[in-house]
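To assess whether the prediction recovers the assembly geometry, we first specified each molecular entity separately, as shown.
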Amino acid sequence: MDEIKVLSFAKINLSIDVGAARGDGYHPVDMVMQQLSFHDDVDLKYIRNNDGTRGNIDVQVKTNRYYLPTDNRNLAFKAARLMADRYGKQVDSGTVRIDIKKRIPVAAGLAGGSGNGAAVIHGLNVLWDLGLDLTKVCLLCAELGSDVPFSALGQAKANYIFPKPMRKDPMAASCARATGRGTELEPVEGIRKPVVIAKPSISVSTKEVYQGIDSCEIVSRPDNDKLVEDLAAHSDGAYDNFINVLEAYTLDHYPAVAKLKQVMSETGAEKVLMSGSGPTVFAVYNHMKAAMSACDKLRDKGYEAYWTKTIK
Ligand code: ATP
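The predicted structure of the complete assembly is given in tokenized form:
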């Protein structure tokens, strides 16, 4: 088998707390991340050279978004390069062709790029029959970026690789608490509710938000211990700790995001919160019908909006 399709899912943050920047510039985080079923498609093809050599592997990336880089700045490319450099000797020589059909908005706080990186690592693990377990996959993902290991965990839970599924792994989880640089993961119970994600037509730089957050006054922080407890008990009390401290910067500096949050709060949602550093805002509903109707209303108002579910 030399060709597979991997679904690469988006995430939202049910909470984010951020500490002061450390010496290396990184802000330690304590956050709960939830995988959604909204996804990009990542098609992977491996074409063998059949010339008897080993370890000489090329990578080619194509996407349906003309503005995305397809070279070493693309996380899917980086992931394939990492796998080829680490495991190429085991798989003779040839070309990895990656075709990404993007649906997840880019630079939106939904970890779309991170998901693509994780999808390529999972995919090549299966395509090349490497037999790496999820712990090893997550370690490789951590070399690519902070959100990538969580994407790997959630993708393993959903297990959408066609035609051959990946190995089942007890560590697989669609929701996790992430600490440190966001790469230390503890699987937790997630939410099982319809979700709408929406974004205004602006971009927000994650770097700018993290740099700006140090000088913001944070009025409330999530109690992540309590959040995890409430999620485990399927209690609506969990919503009290759906708090994202990065809102303190983004909502203040990007009024379009604050306005969207306000608009979404008036659609009958149980909870509305910004995801990541923004500009995407998500809303949780009790019924899919309510989510779909809210999504229509947001589109009528000119927002890019999608209804989706969480991965169970
Ligand atoms: P995260 O939550 O992981 O920080 P995000 O949702 O805020 O991510 P992404 O969609 O991952 O943002 O994109 C962030 C940047 O990564 C973009 O500027 C984009 O150019 C770059 N990027 C690299 N590879 C990809 C990819 N495969 N898909 C989307 N963006 C990518």
